[in-house]
Task: structure prediction
Amino acid sequence: MQVAKKLIRDSLSQLYCEQEIESISKLIFEKVLGFSRLQVHLNQHQTISSANLTQITEIVNRLIQFEPIQYILGETEFYGLPLKVNPAVLIPRPETEELVDWIIHNSPPINPIILDIGTGSGCIPIALTKNLTGAIAEGWDISTDALRVAKKNAEINQVKVDFICADVLNLNYPAQKQKYDIIVSNPPYVTTSEQLSMLKNVVDYEPHVALFVSDTDPMIFYRKIAEIAFKALKPGGKLYFEINEQFGKETIELLSLKGFKNIILKRDINGKERMIKADWDYPSI
Result:
């Protein structure tokens, strides 16, 4: 195992920091050898087979090309839950875990009905359904490939989520047969100009349709989703967004003009304004 650890460290030392290399190494050993993190630690001097070393070398060669380790291994973890991922879906981020945690701990109603717009891997509705007793959830996405991944993830985590193909920009989505207690979305919000400063492992591998919006209308998804929420939320229902930290003020103004109340802009663990919540009630006549 020491040979493999040296191979990983020497190959990736110019691309990743020491902490990242250590984390990547553990993930590789878990996948290739079937070891838990504790077993990796306890078996550091074990000799591994040439076949396993070849497999590790192939993974390292892909990492050198900046391919994300999550796509190479085909899996990741989100809010303590295992998820399958591939280039059809975004790799879930810690900020999205914070958004889910906020929803779970923000006095949700009993047996909530939830809609996630732009569901991708299904990480949000799966985590919410797993952690909120009696939750009923839907997940919409424009990508049929992403929806296949999401359905598989729901099966793995033994939850029922209704995944639906929907294009909210072109108003091609199902008529709401029921009102929702919670609508949540982590829509595309990175402007095309920001793409120039992003890492290759994101730009070259993750789905652009789930990442980027035009600089000329960066609020397009928030506007469309707020219009859906206007009609589809129950009185007292809540709308949650993950947002681009540059557009917190604009998102608040948009939601306020739509009639939402008690709008809260929340910082993530890194101090960036990345989440927003708004309450809905029908306008008084």
Summary: The radius of gyration is 21 Å. The mean pLDDT is 93. The first strand starts at residue 75 and ends at 78. The longest helix spans residues 18-33.
